[in-house]
Design brief:
With 304 residues, the protein is of the alpha/beta class. It has 2 domains: 4-250, P-loop containing nucleotide triphosphate hydrolases (Rossmann fold, 3-Layer(aba) Sandwich), CATH 3.40.50.300; 255-298, no CATH class. It is built from 14 helices and 10 strands. It has helices at residues 44-51, 74-78, 97-102, 114-120, 122-126, 138-150, 168-180, 195-201, 219-224, 226-229, 235-240, 259-274, 278-291, 293-299; strands spanning 4-15, 18-29, 33-38, 57-64, 67-68, 82-85, 156-160, 187-191, 204-209, 212-218. The strands form 2 sheets. Strands 6-7-8-3-9-10 form a 6-stranded mixed sheet, sandwiched between helices. A 4-stranded antiparallel sheet has the order 2-1-4-5, covered by helices on one side. Helix 12 crosses helix 13 (278-291). The relative contact order is 0.14. It binds adenosine-5'-triphosphate and magnesium ion (MG). The site of magnesium ion has 4 residues, from helix 1.
Length: 304
């Protein structure tokens, strides 16, 4: 019989006067990965923030391991064992990898050791002494954000938009880590744009629409429902899901990471993953683009 770790009932949330959550119900059981899906602006980030008390006002019930927390401050809720990787990752770029890892005070009192973290994320060990200000790739930043979320040994890790702007090979590596968390006693609540991956790693899914749960169910059943995966519930997220488990190369289009920087990061990530240099990877991508049917159509024997 499943035991809930997080039980949210009729959760309402506000930013100032703006009422954005209108009664969200969701449960994450111990040892379970659950995904929260929905269109842009549906309220996924606001739901994660509300659980941690990071919105202006909340109403309803948020029980963490059976304890009602809806009126608690964030630090007290976090101490019940909730880790959070925000959409913007929250990495201090002026600090080295190891300095970022040493920031949470819990490291001194029974959290994971830095060595345990490096065992889980070997890439971070290689980059641990990177000089202050050295730019980590997007994948390394996300690994660092997840490592930071895990270092206090949470019982539940909430991850917002894990694969945003990352190359497919990196995304697959991150999903393997997420998949391994329940066996280490960590439940997961994940917001994800790659719906196919999310439904693959999760056992259950909730779909938010306008600040309410529009649909919920068994992740494997939803994944088999093509109309659902490609449907309007998911907006762009659904369209992005390729259905064959292979994610497209996608790049951030927000202000923090303009297209050119996102492109460069994705190429560097892929180069690091494949053990090749970035120029080779770039030339390969260009060749592939030119060989694709669209490339042939546009190419038409000349430059246009
Ligand atoms: N700080 C804020 N102040 C006021 N309104 C906000 C704030 N953050 C989000 N909202 C509004 O709350 C609603 C839900 O936004 P939320 O960020 O939770 O959506 P989301 O599902 O995470 O989608 P996305 O990440 O694509 O924006 C949206 O209408 C959004 O405009
Ligand atoms: Mg969001």
């Amino acid at each position: 019989m499943a035991t809930p770790f997080l039980e949210v009932k009729d959760l309402q949330g506000w930013y100032g006067e703006s009422h954005v959550l209108h009664g969200v119900d969701l449960t994450v059981n111990k040892g379970e990965v659950v995904t929260l899906l929905g269109r842009n602006g549906a309220g996924r980030t606001s739901t994660l923030k509300s659980i941690l008390g990071l919105v202006g006002k909340r109403k309803g019930s948020i029980a963490v391991n059976g304890i009602e927390t809806v009126s608690w401050p964030t630090y007290k809720i976090a101490h019940l064992g909730i880790g959070y990787c925000p959409e913007e990752r929250g990495i201090f770029s002026s600090l080295s990898v190891e300095e970022n890892l040493m920031l949470p005070p819990e490291i001194a009192k029974g959290g994971m050791s830095v060595d345990e973290i490096y065992e889980m994320f070997p890439n971070l060990r290689e980059r641990r002494k990177t000089a202050q200000g050295t730019k980590l790739s997007g994948g390394e930043q996300q690994m660092l954000a997840i490592a930071r979320g895990l270092i206090m040994k949470p019982r539940l890790l909430m991850i917002d938009e894990m694969s945003q702007g990352l190359a497919p090979t990196i995304v697959q590596g991150l999903f393997s880590i997420v998949r391994s968390l329940p066996e280490q006693g960590v439940s997961v609540l994940i917001v994800e744009q790659f719906v196919t991956h999310a439904l693959d790693v999760a056992s259950r899914a909730y779909v938010l629409e306008k600040g309410e749960v529009a649909l919920s169910g068994d992740a494997a059943e939803l994944a088999r429902d093509e109309a659902f995966v490609k449907g309007s519930y998911l907006g762009e997220s659904g369209i992005d899901a390729t259905g064959n488990g292979e994610a497209e190369l996608r790049f951030d289009d927000n202000d923090e990471l303009p297209l050119a920087a996102g492109l460069l990061e994705a190429i560097e990530d892929r180069a690091a993953q494949d053990g090749r240099n970035a120029t080779e990877v770039l030339l390969d991508l260009l060749r592939q683009a030119l060989e694709s049917p669209a490339g042939q159509r546009n190419g038409n024997g000349g430059m246009s």
